Amino acid sequence: MGSDTLRSIVxxxxxTLIFGASEFLLAFLSLGPTPTFVPLVLLLTVLRIHGLxxxxxxxxxxxxxxxxxxxxxxxxLAHYSSASDALSSSTxxxxxxxxxSAITYVLxxxxxxxxxxxxxxxxxxxxxxxxxxxxxxxxxxxxSHISPVGRLLNWSPVSxxxxxxxxxxxxxxxxxxxxxxxxxALFSEVAAAWLMGTSNDEQPVQLFTSSTEAPQxxxxxxxxxxxxxLLVALxxxxxxxxxxxxxxxxxxxxxxxxxxxxxPVHKGQHPTLGDFITETKKLTSQAKVVLWPESAVVFNNQGxxxxxxxxxxxxxxxxxxxxxxxxxxxxxxxxxGGSRMRRNGLALVHEGQKKGEEVIQYYKRNLVPFTExxxxxxxxxxxxxxxxxxxxxxxxxxxxxxxxxxxxxPVPITSSICLDFAFSSAFSSLSSRPALILAPARTxxxxxxxxxxxxxxxxxxxxxxxxxxxxxxxxxxxxxxxGGISEIMQLGSGSWTRTISLQFPFDQRRTxxxxxxxxxxxxxxxxxxxxxxxxxxxxALSGSRxxxxxxxxxxxxFPGRRRDQENLIDAEVPGERQSLLR
Length: 582
Hints:
Distance between the termini: 26 Å
Largest sheet: 7 strands, mixed
Strand content: 5-15%
Number of helices: 18
Mean pLDDT: 83
Helix content: 40-55%
């Protein structure tokens, strides 16, 4: 009786209020700067069931608008703390986030609309149940390529909240989005089976029925069981703990000291060039790679920049310094005397260079909307790889370390700057795998910094590399990620060092995802969707089947209950006489 009452409340008495409140709460919990897996899957489950319920109702437009408002408000509130300082006023910041959240909801609803309208045209139940995950992953892959903030507002979970992170080098973020969509599809099918049930749960389950729908229902249950088995199998590798490589040996690894230069900040002041040079000289005795945060120093012209680099080279020993700078350049290169704009870049400086020989490694390609888009110039040049010649540690001899004449080991280094890491295509142009990614950043809030930190780790894992994240924001997080490491070293100002270990000899072959890209992953997902025969012929062990049928919630997935499921609670509403199940 209790379960029937709950079903009646959900589907007949107060459906709009219940669905709206559930979507608001789950949006608030799951759609913040760092989305988490379980609340996100639950949100998608509720949205799918809600969509199936209102698809044939005359009030579907009104209910859809209510859902839009509920999710938009929940997502906007989840971003409130991170957006309050993004623009000149908190009101403007919140309004901008609300508009982007509203647009993102419309994009998120498209896969559900396609699923509800098109899934019945697919030939197998396996294809029908895996159609939503494929469309869901494809939608966010497209959005991430055209959105000005990349994947930052995507409904995609951060790597630490789910057991599918090991898929990144093989499928990239599309594989994670597919897993989210697959879990939502599976859970919504189970929830719909419960919602369409009756109070006769204690009746014996009929394993066979003379109904012509029995074979179809049997195939459907096997498809759902196959999808659940596949998701469990994909989650199992996460039980294997990946540990960082040892740093006390040089035979199959290359120990490398890395550092982030974050001089102490005096109230109301920004660290000067001299502050960064002084801080860097303290770090070079322990680190061979030192990174400055985004826009650490400002140069008005190229000559000023070269003078600063010459001063830096005087006492940095054998280290390479990643100098993140901001420079003023003409808006129109053909008119040097006209108006000027700024651009963010990163240069690699070491003592072997002469004046003018600095390696300008990278210029920022994606600008923060509103904050930078009107005052800075984006670059169109992709990142490149620089081979840093790493010498032996103090406790190893040159012959032990490498062969003559240089006695060094090459360390391929690339770079990107802050928001660029929100795009999964950030390193798609590289022809080989880098060992280390330099990632200067400057964020305005710790939640934004954490969101970008998660994006940077994902990009590093996708291409099989490690990232040195150095955030100069007042509440920014800095650390090292990738290669079995996910360690935040500092919050706010304060320099730090850490020794990491790189594979030796380093394998520069690209990961599967780096080679095939999103399109190759999409082909794989479509192939999986077409593998319906695998689910149809999945052996149904009598023992496991009887266990599943002993559970009232799960036994509705098996044949013998279709006649009961055809009756909807709100059947008197025109257009309502269709099952939530297929």
